[in-house]
Design brief:
Layout lengths: L13 H6 L9 H5 L5 E8 L8 H8 L7 H13 L15 E5 L2 E7 L3 E10 L4 E10 L1 H30 L3
Antiparallel strand pairs: 1-5, 2-3, 3-4, 4-5
Length: 172
C-alpha cells in the first residue's frame, strides 16, 4: 500500500522523503550525516520523572567519566592501550563532545582514518524516553578489525551508560 503526502510541504528530514505519509518515521541526525551506515543501533530506556529535557545535558552526562560504570571505563582504557597495535590513533580528549543540537537531539561526531562515528542522544520529555542512536561508517581493514569486538559490546555499554546517566540526572 502506498500513500501520498498531499500537503505540498517538503519533509524536514531526508528520511521522510522515502516514507512520507506511510506512518511513523524514525529520525536521527546520525542518519542525516551517515545515511547508509555499516553499523547502526538504537537503544531506548525509560527515565524517571523530574529529569532535565535538554539533550545536550543528556549527551554530556552520558559520556562523562562519572556516568561510566567501572567496567565500561576499563574497556575504554583497554581500547586506548590496544589500538596502536593495528595502527589506529588513540581517541583524543573531547572525542565525545557535542557537535550539534537540533530539537530533542544532540549529535556527537567523530571521524578518523578507520571509521566515522555519529551518536545522537535524544530525550522525549512527553514519553520520558532517552534514545541513543549510533551510526558507523567503516574504512578499510583497520576499521573492520577494530569494530569487530566493539559491535558485540556496543549495545551493552551504551545501555549501561544510559541507565547510569538517568540515575545521575534524576531529581532528588
Amino acid at each position: 500500500m502506498t500513500t501520498e503526502d498531499l500537503s505540498g510541504e517538503t519533509p524536514e528530514h531526508p528520511q521522510d522523503l522515502a516514507r512520507a505519509g506511510s506512518g511513523p518515521v524514525f529520525r536521527s541526525l546520525t542518519l542525516d550525516s551517515i545515511p547508509a551506515p555499516d553499523y547502526a543501533d538504537v537503544i531506548v530506556v525509560p527515565v524517571p520523572a523530574g529529569c532535565p529535557s535538554d539533550p545536550r545535558i543528556w549527551a554530556e552526562t552520558l559520556f562523562s567519566p562519572q556516568s561510566m560504570p567501572a567496567w565500561v571505563a576499563a574497556l575504554m582504557g583497554l581500547r586506548q592501550a590496544v589500538v596502536g597495535l593495528v595502527g589506529i590513533n588513540r581517541a583524543p580528549q573531547g572525542v565525545f563532545a557535542v557537535s550539534d543540537v537540533r530539537g530533542e537531539e544532540a549529535l556527537i561526531s567523530a571521524d578518523d582514518k578507520h571509521l566515522d562515528f555519529r551518536c545522537g542522544v535524544a530525550f522525549d520529555a512527553g514519553a520520558r524516553l532517552l534514545r541513543v542512536t549510533t551510526t558507523v561508517r567503516l574504512k578499510g581493514w583497520r576499521g573492520r578489525l577494530y569494530f569487530a569486538p566493539v559491535r558485540v559490546l556496543h549495545p551493552l555499554v551504551v545501555r549501561a551508560m544510559m541507565v547510569r546517566a538517568a540515575r545521575r540526572l534524576q531529581a532528588p
